[in-house]
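User: My collaborator sent over this chain with a note saying "see what the structure looks like." That's all I know about it. Can you take a look?
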Amino acid sequence: MNTLLEHISNPADLRKLNPIQLRQLAKELRAFIIDVVATKEGHLGASLGVVELTIALHYLFDTPRDLLVWDVGHQAYGHKILTGRKDIFHTNRQLGGIAGFPSRNESEYDAFGVGHSSTSISAALGMAIASNLMGDTQKQHIAVIGDASIASGMAFEALNHAGVSNANLLIILNDNAIGIDPSVGALKEYLTKVKTDRKLATQNNIIKALNFDYSGPIDGHDLPKILSELERLKEVKGPKFLHIITTKGKGLQQAEEDQVTYHAPGKFDKISGERIPQKESIYSKYQDVFGKTIVELASKNEKIVGITPAMLTGSSLKFMMEKFPKRTFDVGIAEQHAVTLAAGMATQGIIPFCAIYSTFLQRAYDQIIHDVALQNLPVIFCLDRAGLVGEDGATHHGVFDLAYLRLIPNLIVFAPRNEIELRNILFTAQLGLKNPIAIRYPRGTGSLIDWKQPFSKINIGEGVQLKKGSTTAILSIGTISKNVTEAFNLMDATNDTSNSSSAFAHYDMRFVKPLDENLLRLIFKQYTSIITIEDGTLKGGFGSALLEFASIQKFPYPITLLGIPDAFVEHGSVVKLQKKIGLDAISLARFFKNLS
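Assistant: Without extra context I'll predict from the sequence alone. Here is the result:
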């Protein structure tokens, strides 16, 4: 049976259809996305929700000449399929395959690379202003942004600028009341009221007050209505704003009913929609170790609060919300606000645990320096998804945190090697530290079954020796120490005693700042060969810190640095990426043997 979708390789093919056929195409496009994601995994709900919008945009606008920017990118699967990547869509998010987010390197239809939220309006506005400067007044510029993303400060800044420009800009608000977790805040409540109160939509309208030609809200799954309104807006000059109402997960019952889980559900049955049970790990996720430990600590310390920018589920701060809702704050996609909010609380004696993904804390860098560290406020930053995170790729790898944090005065930087260490540093941090501290830990599971041990205080700036050795000292930071230990085990598993691990000592430095200088001086006296290993960037990271100290101490021997190279790492499983970079246990064992 022939389908419409199989004959569409690009938007030019799409435009050959008549409008009546588009409804059938929407069904086929949804089925295609469900079919592939069911077995290959990826982000599901967001793309299902914008199928009609995606088709309408490419049908009416002259893409790629007209520039289409998708915010975040979770919602761009349909876009990718209709723009030349249908036959390779099954490689989505896999090593060597297409990216899970729009990428300028991948297609001319991807006008702007995205992965973090709330960038689309600024980018599209920049494109529109550039077109004006070049005298191209006919080109269209479209930003598609979700209701959770538009509440971000950056989106507000862009709206403020766009409203006083003459840019040919169309902003489409995909209002589905959810990001990854349900949307929060006053703007979300306002958008909810707009859906039922026509006076708000037509008169007391926030967007109209910012000088936009506002239209909506309209049903985002009604193709004729979307086509009609977009056709009208094409002829309207200046900044325009279309408000559409969609259902995240549209077309798959389970995805509509459980929108949080089906944001990225893993493998599922494409017919029933039921998730395919994965073999449950005997180990806990680091995020759950954090989430459950902070509840345990908060039960005994009423000054503890939890703060997160729209990552309640992802950071497992949901456990704190369930037990202590008045002491848990989801501030929406607003990393800058989250950090300074925590700083304000800290001035009043509150103990704020600010849970943010490593890659998202980058968005609040000035606030870390100016509002926290400069005033030496004891905010506790809990950085989930540190190091390589896998299939989300370059926009989400948390490989820069050690480098961008260690240069900030007053800030303590700690990386636990296992779950017990994470528990203990969380315990230590709430005992009354006089400095802010950043605690970074990876995505995924740990390596200990019985991690819920009695708390033990960690001495700030103190490293530990894990293994003795005769000639070479391996200095690791964080959970990459597990790969080092496994490498030693591989070496010792052979009958070749000349290639055993006996020559290698292993130290977990634990703190990138402050470094354990006393321990380092002992190491410098005992070993003539030193290797540092980290799952962060080599430029400016842990190894660089050690080189700086070695230079001051006039250490006369070479130091070898292993870590993430000076390049953006693509998407793929963590195991495959570590192998490619040379940080997996087998590669490390081979490297160590060559030194023997």
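A starting point for your reply to your collaborator: The longest strand covers residues 529-537.
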